[in-house]
Each structure stands twice: as C-alpha cells, then as structure tokens.
Amino acid sequence: MADEYEINRHLFDHVILPVYTPADFIPVKALGSKVWDQQNKDYIDFAGGIAVMALGHCHPKLVEALRQQSEKLWHIGNLFTNEPALRLATKIINATFAECVFFANSGAEANEAALKLARRYAITQFSPYKTKIISFYNAFHGRTLFTVSVGGQAKYSDGFGPKPADIVHVPFNNLGAVRAVIDDHTCAVIAEPIQGEGGVIPATDEFIKGLRQLCSHYNALLIFDEIQTGMGRTGKLFAYMHYDVKPDIVTSAKGIGGGFPISAMLTTHSIGHVLTPGSHGTTYGGNPLACAVAETAFDLINHPNLLSGVERRHKLFIECIDKINKQVNIFDSPRGMGLLIGLPLKPIYKNITQRILQNAVQEGLLLLNAGNDIIRFAPSLIITMEEIQLGMNRLLKAIIKAISNQ
Is 166 designated active site? Predict the structure, then answer.
C-alpha cells in the first residue's frame, strides 16, 4: 500500500506508470513565480508548468473564483449547460474570430476535436475522399493516437501499431513543400504559429499568409494549434493576431485555465454545424469549476496592460540573455515571441543542455528544454522584473558550472 512508504521521489517508481522522469525534489507549494519543495527550498519558475501558469501559481482571483464556484456547482454533465461555460464562451467569441466554442479538458482533446471536425466538414460538404491532413515535421499536437500521428515526431508516434491514414508531413516554414502536396483531397492544414516542442520556431509572416491562401483555394480548413501560444503568451490574446490572418479553427489549452485543466476549440457556425448532437463530446468539457476559473483568467489576461507587459518582460529577458552571452558566449540568437522564448546553444555546447537544466534546479531555477539543444522559457505572464533578474542570475551560475565541468 502507498501509505506504507515515505512520500518522497522514490515512491514514484513504485506507484506511477513510468512514462515520466520527474526531478529528484517534490514541489509542495507555490505562489506567483516561486515554488517551494519539501525542504522549503525556493525556486524561480521559468517553466510555468510548460506554459500553463499564465498568471503564476495560486493567483488570488483564480483561487477566489474556484472557491466561490466550489460552493455552487462542481459538475452537472452535458445533459445540461451551465452559467460559467456560457459566460466564458461568450467572452472568447467577443474577443476572437470565433462564433462557437467546444470545451474539453486538454490540448490533445481540443486538437482531436479540431481534426475530427475538419474531416467531418470536408466529407459532408465536399467529398468522402477529402480527408488528407497536412502537418509539419517536429510539430506537436498531443498524445492521443490521432494527434500524435498528426504531430511530426516519430519518436512519439512509433511503436503503437497502425497509425491513422492520410496524414502528410512537410518541413515547417516551407510554403513550396505545402504547395507540392496540397490538393482537392486535402481537408485541413494544421500548424503551430510557434513550434514549441519542436524548438521554439516562429512561423514567418509569408508562411502563415501563404497557408491561408492555399487553404482557401483548395477548400481546406486552416487550423492553428495555439495550445502553447494562446492566451497572451506572445503578447496578443492569440498568436494568429500577429499575422492579420483569419483561421478556420483555433485550439487553446494550457494558459486558458491558469493551471486548472480546461481546453477549447474555436470555430465558426458555418464549419461547426456539421457536428451534431452525439457526433462528438467529452464528459468534463464545460465543467463549471473549470469554466469559472478560466473565465476569471480570461478577464485578467485579455487586458491591454497585461498584454503590453508581456512585451516589456520579453525585452528584459533578451537584455539578460545578451549579458550572459557577453560573459560566456553560449547562445545563438534567441527565438520565439513574448514569453515563449527559445535559447539555442551554440553547437559546441549542445551536449550540455541537460546539465544546465540540472544545475539550474540546484541553483533554484525551473527551466524547460525544446529538443536537445534549446533552453525554453515559458514563465508567468506577470512574473516580476525582479524575479526575471534573479532567475537569470541563477541561470548564469548554472551555465558556468556546466561549462567548467564539460
């Protein structure tokens, strides 16, 4: 029995399916952009729960929204609707291209819904053979069999038997490669405005606008996976807003709930009407608790002061990166937008990425990677300037230690 064991990192190996390799310490509390472990050591959080904690940990307004809703209605099921879900959907629609919303629990579920919708729309409106989905190498769209197959990383999709058919992958930011494979049988093109897991690589303006033109020409739907880039992460509510392009479907998760599990698929009535009662669903989608928290998070994030603050924080990160590089010259040019930042290590240092991450933990800093040679930042959108400075000082110590032990 689990209660026979001391609650520590070693218990993980006995009770949790080994699909993760967690750190040696266990976080037990957090506030804002600081996390404390069982020994009360503090860490500056530049990882944000992998771009989830858009408003930091335990934001008082989110805590209060959860408390209030917890005393009213936790769950009711989709035989009914509920007030928090209706309010949240209305606010999303008023702020975006969307006319209707489907709520789910995770980014994978939102992308699964988007891909199913795209195929249903193409089949019912055009042809039963219009099923091709175009995606991109190094993309990441989730862990269900469908979404992991659409993602362009074989290391995640191989070894699970036959994959869903009619999925084509081409190089990201290569419009010519898309032109070579798109045709009248294509139902959708799905792209991340910034490839997160694939290396924090932003799409070019030409590429995004070219995808829109090609999709319109071939009656294919343009899907933007904004699981990481949505909800203020890039300095706008959604990253597609940087490109002056209207998508057909947008998926959102991670930051939308500020840490509470919820996701959303955004689309229009002319597309969404092909999903009828019973054709799709999810038990917890639109859950009152989740929607109450997400509504409060949405109100806080979709505010000019917060969004402009993302860019100010981005500039400070870049200034700190430049200072580190002047001392140790370890990074190539930073990538990304807003507070989704990738730091490519110079080729001679790419073998020490994990050592830097491990040293950072020892120094009291939580970081991410994006591949073998990219350090990734995805902190709270309201992390303080002082916490940025402190975290970057800790990063410099971690780098110096890693270099000296190379």
Answer: no
Q: Is 254 considered catalytic here?
A: yes
CA atoms of 337 and 202, how far apart (whole Å): 8
Residue 344 sits at φ, ψ, to 5 deg, of -75, 130
First to last CA, the chain: 43
The DSSP string of 239-264 is GGGGTT---SEEEE-GGGGTTS--EE
Contacts for 259 with CB less than 8 Å, ≥ 6 apart: 49, 52, 53, 57, 62
Which residue in 45, 225, 248, 373 is the catalytic one? Answer: 225
**Contact in structure between 261 and 227 (CB atoms under 8 Å):** no
pLDDT digits (tens, 9 = 90+) for 242-255: 999 999 999 999 99
pLDDT for 269-315, tens place per residue?
999 999 999 989 999 999 999 999 999 999 999 999 999 999 999 99
The DSSP bridge partners found for residue 169 are 135
Catalytic site residue from 140, 146, 207, 238: 140
Is residue 323 part of the annotated active site? The answer reads no
- The structure tokens listed for 214 are 């090609």
Residues with Cβ < 8 Å from 61, sequence gap 6 or more? 296, 300
Residue 202's closest CA among 222, 162, 229, 176? Answer: 229
The SS3 of residue 140 is coil
- The amino acid occupying position 131 is T
* pTM given for the model: 0.95
Closest CA to 68 of 262, 296, 278, 272: 296
What lies within 8 Å, CB to CB, of 325 at 6+ separation is 331
More confident residue, 338 or 2: 338
The closest alpha carbon to 233, from 107, 389, 361, belongs to: 107
Amino acid found at 157: S
Q: Residue 189 is inside which H or E element, if any?
A: strand 186-191
Maximum Cα–Cα distance for the chain, whole Å?
A: 63
Q: CB of 150 within 8 A of CB of 169?
A: no
Catalytic residue, chosen from 130, 132, 236, 254, is 254
Say if CB 356 and CB 398 are below 8 A apart. Answer: yes
Calpha distance 401→406 (Å, rounded): 9
All structural domains of the chain: 2-58+305-404 (3.90.1150.10), 72-301 (3.40.640.10)
